Amino acid sequence: MAVISTILQLIGSLAFLLYGMKMMSDGIQKSAGSRLQSALGFMTGNSFLGFLTGLVLTFIIQSSGATTAMEVGFVNAGLMTLQQSVGVTLGANIGTTITAWIVVLFGFNFKISSFAIPIFGFGYLLTIIRKFKKQSLGEAIMGFGMLFIGLDWLSSTIDPANGTLNFLTQFTDLGAWSIAIGVLVGILITALIHSSSAESAIVITMASKQLIGWEFASALVIGSNIGSTIDAVLAGMHSNAPAKRTALVHVLFNVATVILACAFFTPLLELVDLIVPGSPEQSITWHIAALHTVLKTLTSLICLPFTKQIAHLMEKLVKDDSKTDGNVYVFEFSETGGKENAASYIIRAEKEIQDMTVLVTQMFEGVQAGFQNRTNAFIENHLERLTKQEDYADQMKEQLTNYLINCEHLPLSMQQRDSLSIMMQIVDDLEEMTDECYNVAILLKKSIEKQMEFSQEDMDRLGPYLDLARQIMNFISKNINKHLDEDQFMIAKEIETQIDVFRHNLKKVARKRLEAGANVKAELLYIDLVRQIEKFGDRAYSIAGALSQL
């Protein structure tokens, strides 16, 4: 029973440590919100800026896995090139080493439980006091406290006096075999717990209890580099070719890091001994943290000048996706089971909404061609394409809405949750706009086939009316996914008001012609055209209203 109890305590302590890290990372990401997306703007620069972005971002959110999952999502959405992502990956590998330093600096210099529990309590207060609107920050602070509570329990559980992990000492004096076993165990542990940072914390704790020596601890840390790639593999599994290449960069880089570290194992340890004051026996925790940082910094800096060549190699290793039917829309929500990152999922959805806006613009241009040349040429050249585009828009609405609903299960801030609802409304409005375009096309087709005659004066009146609809469409296209301030929203309101005035005047003229004995079918169809264009403008104005709430 004592053995079972100790094992359960070990599992519970580790679970507390991991959950604390996850809560801290999720809380920071939710607190950052849109600022994370702004930070990612650096990625569009050169490789060095990408490197710095990956380093700082991972330093902040405490998870290279989350950064990698974010990268894969952005490349998958076409928002970042493969070469840019290589620099980010290199920076993220250094940024993730900060956790080991936090554990060393705080975990073994204080009585952890004396400040971890008050910190957790303070974080909890922030989550329940709505007035401060700091719930996400509170979660991050609670996670920070839980991390150290778990570390304190872990430290107590693996005490040599308990004999819990004393069997590991038999692997420390086997020469080269000790290194090989340590690397393998490091790979397995990190892959199992999905965190090289947590694995480093465990190794540091075991080393501080003198359960393992300097060399075996180093081998465990080195092996964690390969184990940590599990999140990149999961994130890239259901992605497109560019995203798979991004994940492969992470995998191959870390594998190469381990191979180099094993090949130069002794010189690497000697370098760390030279940098860190004192012998490994006197300050082994500092040595392990330094090894983690030195190894990743060296390999990242070696690869940084070759981001272009690395990207080119990935393109050779991973072939382009096979061509799919251009009339079939596919946009799946792929939950990796690893480090789910809300920001990357939302940005992917925004990219699709932008594409949907382009589709609406193209359909409107096709409809305008029908007004400019109301002949059989319009039916032959545009109607079939408009029909396919309208069907494609229906598919986009269905799958995008389903995707956004699935996003609600991610760790989201209140602002992000509100954004999801707004995005669903925008998707619905965009699909309705494609319906209006298609309806206008069908009405034009009917007028052509029935050989309905409209006076040149009537068609000329529609010109400015269509121009107003185009203006509000262009305004939406330019500002899609952006917040509209009051002045910008008033621009949309003014255009929509002018559309309403035009619609009223056009319908009034048409009714007068009906009273004067004009062709009833032609005039009613003309009124229908006016009404459909007005509905198109109403939907665009609705989108402007939604954007003002972002």
Quick overview of this protein structure:
The chain is mainly α. The protein is 78% helix and 0% strand. The model has no long low-confidence stretch (mean pLDDT 83).
Helix content: over 70%
Mean pLDDT: 83
SSE ordering? HHHHHHHHHHHHHHHHHHHHHH
Specify the structural class.
mainly alpha
Biggest beta sheet summary: none
How would the global form be characterised?
elongated
Strand content: under 5%
Radius of gyration: 30 Å
List segments where confidence is low: pLDDT < 50 over at least 5 consecutive residues. none
**Span from first to last CA?**
57 Å
What is the number of beta strands? 0
Count of runs of 4 or more consecutive helical residues: 22
What are the defining features of this structure?
mainly alpha; 22 helices
Describe how the helices and strands are arranged:
Layout: H1 2-32, H2 34-39, H3 47-61, H4 64-76, H5 82-95, H6 98-107, H7 112-128, H8 135-157, H9 176-193, H10 196-208, H11 214-227, H12 230-237, H13 241-263, H14 265-275, H15 284-303, H16 307-317, H17 342-372, H18 376-407, H19 414-449, H20 456-479, H21 486-515, H22 520-547
Helix pairs in contact: 1-8, 3-5, 4-5, 4-12, 4-13, 4-17, 5-13, 5-15, 5-16, 6-10, 6-15, 7-8, 9-11, 10-11, 10-15, 11-13, 11-15, 12-13, 13-16, 14-15, 17-18, 17-19, 17-20, 18-19, 19-22, 20-21, 20-22, 21-22
